## 1
Amino acid sequence: MNDLDPGTLAAIDKLLESSARSDVPGYAVGVVRAGRVLYRRATGLASIEQAVANTPGTRMRIASVTKQFTGLAVMLLVEDGKLELDQPVRAYLPELAGLNGTPTLRQLLNHTSGLRDALDSIAFFLSEGLFPQIPAGLTHQWSSRFTDANFAPGEAWCYSNYGYGLLSLVIEKASGLTLADFFQQRLFAPLGMVDSVLWPNDMELLPGLATSHIRLPDGRYRRSIYPCEELVGGGGIVSTVDDMLRWAANLREQRLGSAASWAEIQRKLRFNNGSEHNYGFGLKCQLHRGVELRWHDGSTFGSKSALLCYPTQGLDIVVLANRSDSEPGAIGIKIAELLLADVLGPPKVNAEAVGREALIGNYYSPALRRVFSIRPHQTNLLFAINATPEGVLRDEDGVLGNDSSFGPVTVHHTSSTAAIEVEICGHRETYSRLPATPPASTELEAALVGSYRLADFDTPVRIVLEQGALHIDLDSRFHPNRIALTPFSSEVFLCTVTVLGSPAQGVVTLERRDGVVVGFFFSLQRTWNLHFLRSGMR
């Protein structure tokens, strides 16, 4: 830490200031450059309940940063001659029927499989208040019943924890080891990661593991539990700042794995249409203001993480947090910009709202059953897809776009303010403007209210109108779960659903036949177009 000047040290400390208290959860942060530790600090409590402080040695959940470990594990088995990246997953898990066996291992690693994320849709059908832990086997059983996918393999991009669940099973089948043992023997032990472990169930006690905390609207914190025993290769690792810095060094120096393996890991994925994306094998490989960056962040209920590796600068940054109200990725970027100020190029330009007021609004693509929204925020333009906020639009020589949870996005202006063209993963579609003033829910009662069922599962639901508001009522076997429907138009609705204790936004679009509503399609961020049929319809 002596290598940091006082001003830089104070600036990094200030990023953690809100958690430098004895009554809130906090962070553990480590920074290494050229092999020297520049910063190593923890703030806040590992457990509010027990009043135990976080330390740099506190174990925390790294969530989806786990995926890059799974990516390297697959490549080690490719080197062993036990796996081939472009074989369908069915070649290694022959019990997989239908859609689930079709994608290749590469497509699973790159999130281009098209498989719906079963965790997303299972949570939709669980009632709020249910103890939030999904047992091993349930997402696999649930996903196997889908007769449709988000898209054909290789056509688009959609983050899928379920895909990494399948990869976990493939690794176990090919290696003859449990995934926990494979990680320990082939990854953790060789790198000296002595405090890291695959730990999929918080009901099992693990010494030194920080409690995950969810912040409630009133400012209090609630204990969280890791939600799914099948989220192993997709998010199950527990680690420390020191161990994750050892892993970051491996990303730079490539101590484990052949040069050919690392070339595959760092290769940009290519969609079927030839366009590219910066994601692959659990890593995002891109330029940050002209400087090479390999990174990933992670988020589970009550814990978040980020790992940033700048290989040409020898800079590694790890930020772990045991609180839901945290932004490890943003903190990591700010630390990097403090330390690399002399080599970073100019920042990307945000799209200004001034002069683009005509673009602001909600737009709908009937071909995709997708809503694209452009909203003002201070002086900039934000965008949302299917009501999920995606961030700010960037302006590159008048072309608006950014990365999103649906893949790379570009917004193309049209001569009319009634429509825009949006390109996602190289596919360009026309989105028509939705009305600024949607119809009242009471006007839609006669067309919508009734009984429906999820086609693949024969699961009954009802659309009801109560006190002037529309809702979807789920017939949960535990107790009813209600989802609010707010009209965007007479055909498209915003829905708000609680997924394992956290609110999520989605979209419902109507299906009509001869003007009569015969069903609807329900989409969340990672599960698209679940089809519900009106009772009595085929």
## 2
Amino acid sequence: MTKAGTNKEFSNTVLKKKWERIGKQKRSGVTVPLFSVFSKDSTGIGDLNDLKLLIDWCVYTGNSIIQLLPMNDVGSTFCPYDSVTSFGLEPLYISLDLLSSELGLNILKDIDKIRKMFPMPRQRVDYSLKKAKVDLLWGIFSQGAYIKNDEFLLFQKDNKYWLDDFALFKALKYYYNGAAWYDWEDKYKKRNKPELDEFLKQHASEVLFEKWMQWQLYRQFKQVKEYAVARNILIKGDLPILVSRDSADVWSHPEFFKLDFAAGAPPDMYCAKGQRWGTPTYNWERIAADNYLYLKEKLKYSQNFYDILRIDHVVGLFRIWSIPYNEPIENQGLNGFFDPGDEKKWEKHGRDILLTMLGNTDMFLCAEDLGVIPKVCTDTLKELGIPGNDVQRWVKDWKTKHDFLPSDEYRMLSVAVLSTHDTTNWPAWWENEAGTMDENLFNRRCVERGIDVKHAQERLFDSARSEHGRLRWKEDINSVDALVNILGKKREEVADFIDFYKNTYLEKEKLWKQLNLSGPMREKYDPEVLSAVLRIVLESRAIFSIQLIIDLLYLDNIFSGDTYQYRINTPGTVGEKNWSLVIPLSLEELAGHPVSSKIKEMIAFSVRS
């Protein structure tokens, strides 16, 4: 295996022991939303037991990292980055088969009934499954076999910091038919202790049931972790930077949050209005005053399951885009501001939090550092030895050549990827986004400058090759002068348009040249094109190369139809097509599919096996 231990990026004393634990060799891995895979025994959705099949597949293909999306309880939104807890896991992922040896005949019949109601395979998860599965789990719990189990009692004791509040919160939500905690009666909303104690007394079984489900999830996930350790597979978890406004965390610790604000991201060339996530921002001063116990407890529980932890939106630890909560929803992230407001405070703010995390976990930490990232964030991550993300479509010389960087210019301290859960898959990017700019962004910037939108679009863009809200440049707009002339403004007035143009005009052609494939450029994706670009990230300097499972399966045309439909999430939108995509073949079928041999060969050739 290729070693990287001589490089100074790996010698940082803060991370030295963590590097020694996971090894300094280059590794490859796969990002898999658990809801996107299934086995022949799955009950309507992938579950924890299915991860063992995925581990076996990784052993065969030479991958040594499985990266999961957040596994926390998603509540009614089904968005893993808007979960109702930073601690508790999603009950949908409980394996009924792992419980089946202890179940009665009637329960086994009920499991079969659910399998028939929610058959696999299916293109999208039907989240009405959650009620059916939880109802079944209630039936199992009601048999009373675990109530006085010593292991269960120890689990409750060890996780008292979060478990009591979480279970009570969930029972109250059920009592209020799913209403948000801020719509409950004041006695519960404001956590009146005598009233809560009385509720707990009257609803003891419902509260204990929530704890029992979390214990089952804990037991099963620990089994998976042990299975992975025995096969030298690392599990990489995901720590969302934020939590839902309607969450047990916010209800139990409102002092840790700024409830007058919603977090998001400022406008950029990919999201014209920016993003508004709705989650409240943190009151880090109050968290720090409590010696960061809330953060430490999150890490303590995550460590039960993960070897590596991805810090979501790490730049938000330095400064976060804060939008007044009463700002109209349609404005998305347009009218926000950075918190802290003083740029001089950003470095210490982020550093203090990251050092707290590094000092309170054995997990190796990686960071999602995408978007507009201030230099203090990048420099601090590098200094602390925390790998960021290098996404192939954005690894470019943005200022001078406006071209894609070759493999040997990727950051060594990074995770090289083709796509993320928030982007299109790579084939969809190639076919629909490469060489384009966002239509909403272009239109809004035109309106701001008094430019005729219709006239500019007709002159600048090829409508026949513009789809999915992306505008493809006409090839004859072959100079900045041509662009400026059509816009009818002085260069300094349209500097941002010039920048967009330089970084997207003939973007596909530039990448095609780098891929070094024969023949004319192909507008449509095919496995040969995907193999060529996958080699770039696999053979890059990056210590890790972890690919979305969807991209890997496109190596063999497993998906059919418009590539654009196969994405995990579209940021800034809410709908049934987010967080629900299921791959079209079972894990058993994947194990025997020719695509797995192809993946194995590519990983072996890249010396990441």
## 3
Amino acid sequence: MRRIFILTALSLMIASGFVIWGYLNFKSPEQVILPSNASIGGSESKAEDSHKEDGIIKLNEDAIKSAGIVIEDVKKMAIDNYITATGEVKANAEKEAYITPRIPGKVVEVKVRLGEDADKGEILARIDSVETEEIRAGFIGAAANLKAAEANLEKERLLYNNKAKIMEMVIPPIPPLSKGGERGVTSEDAMTFLKDADLGKAKADILRPMARLELAESNLKRERELYQDNISSMKEVIAAEKEHTGARIEFQTGVEEMFLNAKNELAKAEAEYMSAKARIEERREHFYHYGFSDTEIDEMVDESRKYGHATIPIIAPFKGRIVERVVTVGQVVDISTKLFKLIDLSTVWVWANVYEKDLGKVKIGQTVYITVSPYPDNVFTGKITYISDIIDPATRTVKVRAELENPPESPQIPPLSKGGRGDFKGGQGGLLKPEMFATVKIDVGRGFSLAVPESAIQREGENTIVFVTLPPSAPPYKGGEFEKRVVAIGHEVDGYHPVISGLKEGERIVTKGAFTLKSEALKESMEHED
């Protein structure tokens, strides 16, 4: 009996299986159980346009058209690459200075106020110092010595020139006596020139040999005339010629010695003048060191002006703005006292914090675009001038310095995303103030990279997502399948984001209507939670 019971039960189970198999394979389409939101008879409701299965969003053709979905290929394109960093505006350290006095003294005048602009060389204050009086006295003495040396030099030049003219009259070669010429000058020629010439002390020394030459010439002339009249002999003529030759040689020798002495005296006078000039220039340099101008120095050596102590001017070393004033009239100061802080604000520095991973892309000379919160629509353009050699161990960032002009007023410049690049001229008291926070975009070059339009990007919490189309579903379903994909992208440039990871070239993504797909994905997530 037990064996019959088991066989009967087994037969019933096999028969039931065949019945179920036949029902599932031979039922009519009208008997398909539809989702709760579908209508009977094959008609479709609006909700049936979308279908979700295993995280894949499915839309039929009507739903795709209704949502305005546009699908495009992911491809490479030429795009400017930027690194974005935070930064701070700082004063140009090469154009800021604390101004201190160069000599101790008492402040007797302050000429500028806090916040005022000063030109290069402008006097900011004056200090009274007794120490400068010693320099002034030495300068006056040196000026007097220079004046005397200059007058002596002029005198020696005049004497030299006069003696040089006599030398030219005596020394030039004369045709020999055999051809009717005579060497040297006659006493009449010499006396005519020497009568009015200024020769100084040498004039008395040259007159004695000249008198002898004059007498010898007269005696020679007389002896020759007597010889022609047969009154005097040839012996007497020869003696007169010898005397004349000796007198002429003595005169020429005297002229040469006089010229050489004049040359030596002139050289000595020139040396004394140069020495006096060097001393006065040395004294003048002392005053330059304390900030005096040439006009002020010249006034100090004018003895007709009554001076007590010479006040020392405190001058601006460059054009800039007074941002600190820590001095008052009557204050006693020394060389370590800070009087003013001067900053040239026509240019500023922006220090950006660049992450270690981006450091390899940053180079000196690259262009940077800077925005600050007070002027969000203005873009300030500069150049990288320095990259630090030290990485901050806490933030893993490197300090990068850019220098840029600081515009004096706010022009209307389109933002960077619309092609604005800024075109400013520098000036004191510009828009950019030290210690402002800044956003810095570093242009690291133009290149080809995968890029997606801004309209394709959706945000989901901390993730950035796009929707990638999948191959068409098998019949009978018609429409499209879309996969939600998390991607890593770069900063937006001219409406496009470079793709860092998550997409491949040739994949197709939704570039318009992505918000509809995001909404469908959100519904799916909520249904799973339920």
## 4
Amino acid sequence: MAQRTIRATVSLAEATALLQPRTDLLVEHVESAGERTTYSQDVGPFETYERTAWIDRTEVAADAEVAADAEELVYCETTTFRTAIPFWGRAVDLLMSRAIGDLDRTPRHRWWWPGEVVTSNTTRIIALLSLLGMIGAFIGVNIGQTITFAAAEFGSSKSAQANALAATRAGVILTTLVIWKADQIGRKPLLILFASGASIFTVIGAFSTSLTMLTITQGIGRGMATGLLTLVTLAATEEIPRTMRAFILSILTLCGALGAGAVLWVLPLADVNERGWRLVYLVPLLFIPVILWIWRIMPETRRFTAADRVHSPGFNSVNKKWFFLIVFIYAAVSVFGAPAGQLQNEYLRDDLGFSAADISQFRILITTPAGLVVLLAGWVADRRGRRLIGAVSLAIGSVMSAVFFTQQGGALWLTAAVSAWLGGAAFPVIRAYQTELFPTRSRAMVGGWLDLLAVGGSALGLVIAGQLIDGGRTVGEALLFLLPLPLLVAVTIPLLLPKTAGVELEDLNPYDPELPDPIEHPDEVAELVEAAGGAPPVSPHGATA
């Protein structure tokens, strides 16, 4: 439990304002009035909240007016709180403590927190989605990071590896047939299903007897991981305040990068012996208890709950222009991005002689600083618009990704760093369009089709790269052949995509019902949060506020 105490000399006007219920970080109501006034949360991001305020040695009437002859008053306040953020909450409490202690109660946008009042439903969902994103990312990159070692045990060629990586994309067909149910039954059930299934099939892959069996198990597991990541972005977009969508998606991208990076932490196990790579596939056993915990405490998104109540239109209301444009963007980027990302380890291992430990160290050192770039890109995208930053990041990052396969020494590190940093910065900016431009009760269906078509692009890119390599070209030459596709997308983004930064989803999708304003209609917001499965806040003494 965090606590913030204030004691400050203020004017009469300042004291009067401070003794009013807050409407900046949360919407308060007066729980009890008197010499000391106690406030509880009506709507806000806290799991536990109570503020007690008083004027030291000065009589305060029940209506919070101070004696008129006082010129300077000693204002005292104690706030006990805990943000409704599982796992990461104690770190956020440190930032929140400063905001709670700020005597300026004017609603405003902080770099780490939106200017709007955020519900506990929102904070809880986003925190849990970050954990699911880590799980999905770990499973999604696992086969790409380990296939070179599995192929060595099975005696498979480079082209067989590329074909296997392409074939694992077929698993997304399964998730496409299922993911549309999230538009009918909600996001939570499918999130849990995909997370559990992806973990189980990854573990089964540890017992593969051939590259074919590994490809089948990881095709299913990776398909579910793809569906999981799609729903993570979708659910987060439905909860994130409009002024911070790109920034929060950048944070979720970093959480995904942390999950993907965890594969590199355990990749040295592949050096134990020829079969050591199988140990990496057993790691998802640790995810099962986390998934069960998330299942128990995660609420549904408020936007799905609101849209489901009024039975808002589904796939027929989708803007076909935006749909086909986003399909082209995802497919074109995937044709290049899949071989660029998944053949890196092969290049490092076979062409440059890196061991598993060397590859792990190289990737960790390259990708770790990318987090700051991704956060900065999301922050700028929310304030200056996302089209230009997405286009520039994608263009430069793609060029560096292709050039990487022709480099050694210091140039290898430089091109890898720039491609990882700018590629990572472009991803959340582009990914946001997948959910922002489509109505609530069609977002999962659209996401499934986009995943299928984008994965088709990935498989096509891997097959083309594999054929070019078998034909005598180097990996670098194969990537340069595919480079025009992401460069075309970089031109398309600022020219054809609409401005969505700072725009409410309901303004982009007029078929969706508007959410009630937390300041004007706190009771309606609280009722919607409860209907979505969110828990009401409690006082530090244990009573429901």
